[in-house]
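ok so for the tutorial part 2 we go from a plain amino acid sequence to predicted structure tokens. step 1 is just haveing the sequence, like this:
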Amino acid sequence: MIKPKTTKRDTRKELESLVDQFIKKNGTIQQVDMGESGLVDGKYNTSHIGFNEPKQDRTPLNHVVAAIQQRKHSKSPPTTSSPKKRPKKKILYDDFGDPIRWVWEE
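step 2 — the prediction. this is what the tokens look like for a chain of 106 residues:
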């Protein structure tokens, strides 16, 4: 049996009931200021931010881009050749409309 998908409404109700159970068991909810939980010793935790290295100079590649653009525009347009006709499968019927056999027709 397939379990029905849980909706946002179901998830909200479940979370509310869990919070209510926590409060009924004399649990307390501590209010914190916005962004305070991300602070370490009153400062933002910067060890995970990747801006520690100095800025690196970039290598200009304008000549490479120009060469690619030139190759792209110098290609001749594809020639439109007539597509080869593929043989088709046709069914032969007898006088009474019953199928007899398949025949390949060009």
